[in-house]
Amino acid sequence: MLVYSEQNSPRLEYTLDLVGSEIFNGPIIQTNEKEKFIGYTGPKLNYSEKRLTTTEFFIQPHTLLFEKGLREQPLSECEHYGRPAFFSTTGDFPFDIFSALFFLVSRYEEYLPFQPDQFGRFPYQSSVAFKGKFLHLPLINYWLQDFKLALRNKFPELIFRLKDFKFIPSYDIDMAYSYKHKGLKRNLAGFCRSLYQGRWDRILDRWDVLFNRKTDPFDCYEWLDSLHLYCRTRAYYFFLLADKQKGYDKNISPGKRAMQTLVAYHASGYTVGIHPSWQSGDEEAILMEEVDKLAEITGSPVKYSRQHYIRMSLPDTYRRLTALGIEKDFSMGYGSQNGFRASLASSFFWYDLKAEKKTGLMLFPFCFMEANSFYEQHQNPQDTLAELMAFYRSVKEVNGLMITIWHNHFLGADPQFMGWREVYEVFLKDHIYWDM
To answer: What are 42-73's pLDDT values in tens digits?
Structure first.
């Protein structure tokens, strides 16, 4: 399809590339030569102020894709097939889908001033998606489905891409073990803490694990192997490798042989990435050390990452990751509320708004993290299964990509998380298995 605009811009080029990759088998061709566009006899879209021909698909543009810099954007909200939309305009589509898509995917609003949450992050409550009550929807995927239908009605000869539903299970290994391999000092502190709290059950539990009479309650790795084999899924594991255990970084030391063995084992059969520590968000040198450590353990360059606590700020976090060779990041989601942060259930390249350019960093958005359901949304396992199924149905309806995050300590034998392992098993075996 040929697209005409009066001027070129990196934002428009990026958006057309994304739309092309989502709904077409090939790239969208762009031109700003009016006569060439008027004379073209194939499917064509006019993205300018005035209609030029009677055979074109016409969308009158908002100014967003031709602007430079950042400013508060009046969204001129509207409704399209019962779902929210904005940047309403005239033409053959009721809103400027290109500008609306770019606004959400680029995370434009996160570059504007905002009041951070307690962890210094962009709060989901400040997002357009939350305020507009569509955080739970892969809204852009729905828009693109409607856009494709409108184009097909105008140009029946157009060939569109056939997409399939995809699922990626992923795991953050923040605390590889509850008791094992933590050393004498940390275990003595644990015994004293349990004694002070009167938790004799935890004292006995720790004792049995340390003397190999019981499996560590966070050790679910063999069970996960069996589950993946049964469901024929390829999992991604992200390991926290902070050299110092402090604050939110509580994993066992990457210098311990047990930790290195665990990482190497998973690297031999799964995709492994770095889970940058909280400390690394303050010091770039620490991030480099953690990436180098993972590369040393696995014997391969580190290409995948996901931020611990989803601690990130744009564009700095992604720039640091890119500088260290990260090619695919799985942090696009909220660390306190489940949903679609970029309103898209598909992987996409990050657009650096400060530099005004498309980058080579591919983002893989997640829509669900069990820690959000448990700690922030205060759900029980049954409510969480219902939430998971709602996301599953939405993503499957648009043939999108569904990524979930689980932590090993939720899937082990810790009494605090009873029922969560069963929820995950039911979800994979009764639903995902049949789609893979």
So the answer is: 999 999 999 999 999 999 999 999 999 999 99
Closest C-alpha among 430, 421, 415 to residue 204:
415
Rounded Cα distance between 174 and 238, Å, is 8
Contact 402, 391 (CB under 8 A): yes
Under the banding of pLDDT at 50, 70 and 90, the label for residue 432 is: confident
Every domain of the chain and the residues it spans: 2-154, 166-178+216-435
Using CA atoms, how far apart are residues 276 and 293, in angstroms rounded to an integer? 11
Residues 6+ apart with CB under 8 A from 258: 176, 177, 180, 181, 252
**pLDDT tens per residue across span 195-223:** 657 774 666 666 566 667 788 999 999 99
φ, ψ of residue 44 to 5 degrees: the values are -150, 150
Q: Which CATH number fits domain 166-178+216-435: 3.40.50.150, 3.40.50.1970, 3.20.20.370, 3.40.50.170?
A: 3.20.20.370
pLDDT digits (tens, 9 = 90+) for 213-269: 788 999 999 999 999 999 999 999 999 999 998 899 999 999 999 999 999 999 999
